[in-house]
Write a structure and sequence with these properties.
One of its GO terms (cellular component) is cytosol. The chain is 34% helix and 24% strand. It has 608 residues and is of the alpha/beta class. The protein has four domains: 12-215, Rossmann fold; 225-258 and 360-430, Beta Barrel (Elongation Factor Tu (Ef-tu), domain 3), CATH 2.40.30; 269-353, no CATH class; 437-606, Rossmann fold (3-Layer(aba) Sandwich).
Amino acid sequence: MESTYKSGQNPQIYILYASETGNCEQISQDFFETFSKDYPNAKRFVLNDHQTQKNGQSAFDLQSKDALKVCIFLTSSTGDGDSPDNGEIFHKFLRKQTNHLEEGQHSTALSHVFYTVLGLGDSNYSKFQGAPRFLDSKLKQLGAQTFYDRAEADEATSLELVVEPWLEGLNDSINSIIRKIKKFDQEYIDQLLTPIDVNEHQAQVDGHDDENESIKTPLMTYGNIIGGKITPCSPDRELLEIEFKTDKPVSRDLIDVGSAFSFLPQNSEETINYVIEKFKWDRNALIGNDTVYDLLQKSVDIVSEKLKLSKVLTDYDLQFLPEEAKESKHITLKDFSEYTVKFDQIPFSILEDDVPKIKERYYSIINDPFYDEKEKQVVETSHTFKICFGLHKFSVRGQNRFGLATSFMKDILVNQEFSRKIKMHFSHSNRIIYFPHKEYVQELKPLIFICHGTGITPFISILERIKNIYESHERFGDLIMLFGVRSDTENFLFREQLLDIFTKLKLKSDYSQLYLASSQSLSEETYNGLVIKRKGHVQSFFEDQSVRDRIKNYLLEKEGYLMICGNKSTLGQSVIKGLNEKFDELFSHSQLDKLKQSGNLLLELWDD
Ligand SMILES: Cc1cc2nc3c(=O)[nH]c(=O)nc-3n(C[C@H](O)[C@H](O)[C@H](O)COP(=O)(O)O)c2cc1C
């Protein structure tokens, strides 16, 4: 079949991104804004729009051989080297297209595609650049051709270090590939655009058993906060526990003890009204299908994400702003609205383009959602998920120190607004820490948990599961937990629960022990001999020969699991350093990498 695409014609150009926490989304958006001035036909899509319909038209379809296509992919990784949720459908498409191919075998399915990839990642994760590398290798296998080298940006050093030079070189490379494509002769174009034998290909694709993948399709559902409690823990901090109930049942394939879900917080009524009043906006005015009020409530972040002031300054005449404001470069919409003069000049359209969107917030669960108390067994679906977080009790210098998500949840709880609908998201890719049930309960492989502060949460839900199945098992593997707190009298979170489960575990395992490191003060409390205490940080337990011997034995001989959860810089790096330095080189970086690859070292570390 002769194609209608003619030599000399411009290719279709797509900027395609997948992003979990917004970085790739933002970079692709910024790039697209300038790029589309030179190439007005270029289009930008999120990867999951592949082969979907938008306003009655196909959004983008790389499989369709209707034209030559230039694609700029920007993607991060999440979970364990997985694609962000909003790229998962495209990844599935790539898997389907390639699973009938042997290793090293290629097809021509995407021979009409010319592409490059920018990968964002973090080398602290074992599958560094998992998703971009997967994307690159599958595109190649399907015959797509690279026109500019893939770049690997690393958050552990600095994303900008790689992103900026890559973006600088990108324009020239696009210009040059377009020039090249326009010079292709018709015969070559026809060859690239010849459809592959669909029947033969489809037969192979259909033969693939897709069952396991479909179970793990991420779930977006709405839910409500149905209750919770506030417990003071220190003079200035309190602990909030919040219980969510989802509208749809959530499968245990998507979340289980140890893992997290995310939800979209909303701005408070008070903040929305404040901003509307300051800017003199009409709350019912429409932007697309949403009113200004809707956008302010559910879409744009008023209090925690910052907008780029320089952009607003050049787009609108904001010379009246005081110097101190201009110097701040980035500012939240709320802070921006504090400068009270001449705000009638600022149109509400900034909500669409300039104000950052609300980002999803991830929380590990602290309950065992899948244990059915009546049936006394673990079931496959659940509606109720509990989380917890610490909060400063008081405002500091008149400023509310709460983040958007935490104040959102606290307000709902305090004002009992339990009917408010919240968008929630469950994905298998949030399963970093998990409970290796068979290995721990049947094979008695040991578990080592290391955490501090609220990093304890994934372990609390795992311990809940162990408590729930306790009666039905004679023996358990050894379980040791090294828990770091600031003060054991004030910040010993989940104290009663921990003492209870460790009392039980000691009866049914050879050696299970709770180790408590208190960094600022250590009380005289003995906890009935149940807790081994120490002043210092968690890794100071590595000074203790018996702790070192256990960790060595559990990991190197008994194939146990080490799970670490907490802040990357204050916990993660120090614990890894301790493992490197205090164990006679048994846990060098390469040894730890091996443990990560075999799944025996699980790291859930977050930035400040
Ligand atoms: C829960 C979680 C899991 C992650 N897993 C990986 C990973 O397996 N490999 C990797 O290279 N980076 C991983 N990262 C790092 C992200 O890819 C990195 O932060 C990136 O800048 C995020 O970009 P985004 O905001 O566009 O999603 C992970 C980050 C988080 C929060």
